[in-house]
Amino acid sequence: APAMSLSMQMNCGAAPTPAILLLLLTHAHDTSALRLAVRPKLWLLDRDGCINADVGSPGVVRREDLHLIPGSAGAITRLRLFAPVAVVTNQSARGKGLLSAAGLDEIHERLRHLIASAARGGLASEDGSRWDGLYVCEDALPSSRKKPAAGMLLEALHDFTCEPSEAVMVGDSWSDVVAARRAGCVPVLLATGHGQALAAALRRQGSRLPASLTAAALSEERVLAEWLGGRGEAEAALVREALCGGPVSVYETLAQAADALLAQ
Questions:
Q1: Quick check: 127 and 145 in contact, CB under 8 A?
Q2: Strand ranges (E), 82-196
Q3: Given 30, 48, 54, 172, which residue is catalytic?
Q4: Is the whole-model pTM more than 0.90?
Q5: DSSP assignment string, 8-74
Q6: Residue 222 near residue 3 (C-beta atoms within 8 A)
Q7: pLDDT: is 205 or 75 the higher one?
Q8: How many helices (H) and strands (E) in the chain?
Q9: What sign has the CA pseudo-torsion 90, 152, 37, 84?
Q10: Is 48 a catalytic residue?
Q11: CA 182 to chain centre
Q12: Is the distance from CB of 84 to CB of 129 less than 8 angstroms?
């Protein structure tokens, strides 16, 4: 049976989770959000599919194709009132020769403008940005910096003098979650961008977001088992690695995640 096969694949052993988490949930249909044991000192945010809409491969290569996900600008503004925000993004279109350095700068300038306009105020950095750090990996092939590798996250942790367990990584893909696990940060997955297929599966099996996804749920819940079975080999491997580190909290949007985490 598929569930038996998945159960074997998800045999994770006793992989530890970051100390910042209090693991209160055991099934995907629980609707409580994760709880943070200490106040985060750094927010790490993916870009495409988290802040702005994901447009599919090869990504945003024209400034006019960049559009904010509703509520993301206000979420960034609120998060920055509590701790610095660093954007951590793979932009392999640069490495593939599909986007120039000047073109990428123009896209990020448009992103700054859109966030400032939508948020109607908020704190600006010294350079006028609406974030405190920007880390970009332009590599076309896997590298030590390109997510799911932890390189960019570790750079940010060093630059902001932050312990891994004091940082929260928010993104829409399993490469974001795995990068957080490998860096020792707290992962948060969004149902925007690449997360939409998982969110649809969670809803079909009766979950409301936010929800906590576990390795056990992927083995026991038929709808989620089918979802995992429909992933490619590379993505399925990331899912298994991510969940072997503990439950992953899934939120509808960056705005919902920000509101829930800041309310604690």
A1: no
A2: 85-90, 133-137, 167-171, 186-190
A3: 48
A4: no
A5: HHT---S----TTEE----STT--PPPEESS--SEEEE-SBTTTB----TT---SGGG--BPTTHHH
A6: yes
A7: 75
A8: 11, 9
A9: negative
A10: yes
A11: 13
A12: no
- Between CA 141 and CA 92 the distance in angstroms is 8
Structure confidence at residue 36 as a pLDDT band (50, 70, 90): confident
The tokens for 237 are 């491997």
Query: E strands along the chain, which residues?
Result: 21-22, 35-36, 42-45, 85-90, 133-137, 167-171, 186-190, 211-213, 248-251
| Per-residue pLDDT, 33 | 59
Percent of the chain scoring above 70 in pLDDT: 84
Confirm whether 46 is a catalytic residue: yes
Helix (H) / strand (E) element for 93: namely helix 92-95
Residue 103, token pair as written in the block: 């073109």
Question: For 138, which DSSP code?
Answer: -
Q: Please identify which of the residues 46, 54, 132, 172 carries the catalytic annotation.
A: 46
Confidence of residue 11 (pLDDT cuts 50, 70, 90): low
Q: How many residues does the chain have?
A: 264
